[in-house]
Amino acid sequence: MAGIVPARSEWNVHMLVVLGIILLVAGAILSFAIDKVVDGVDLLAVGYILMGAGVLALIASAIRGVGFMSRGNNRMHSERYVSPEGNHVFEETETH
What CA–CA distance (Å, rounded) separates 70 from 72? Predict the structure, then answer.
């Protein structure tokens, strides 16, 4: 159907938002709430990396969400007229 955004695409935006929030929370926990030391792993750096990835996921979901919102407002209507002789074709297109 024309003009309807597929549910799968909307689902992907929601999944990106949830992924972003989960990454932000996990990164904050690793960076600020855990005091343990793990050999060979800098938990502070891993936490900051996870929080950065979460922010990127939220930005990507916002960009995709804005694209879906603007796509839903555009409607196109086309009509084609053919002369009785069939020699001339006139096509009219309107965008709402």
Answer: 5
- Distance between CA atoms of 69 and 61, rounded to whole angstroms? 12
Element at 82 (helix H, strand E): strand 76-82
Query: pLDDT tens for residues 36-67?
Result: 888 999 999 999 999 999 999 999 999 888 77
- Per-residue pLDDT averaged across 9-32, rounded? 90
Alpha-carbon distances, residue 56 vs 41, 52, 64, 83, 88 (angstroms): 23, 6, 12, 55, 53
Helix (H) or strand (E) holding 94, with range, is strand 89-95
C-alpha dihedral sign at 50, 53, 59, 64: negative
Residue the block writes with tokens 């949830």: 18
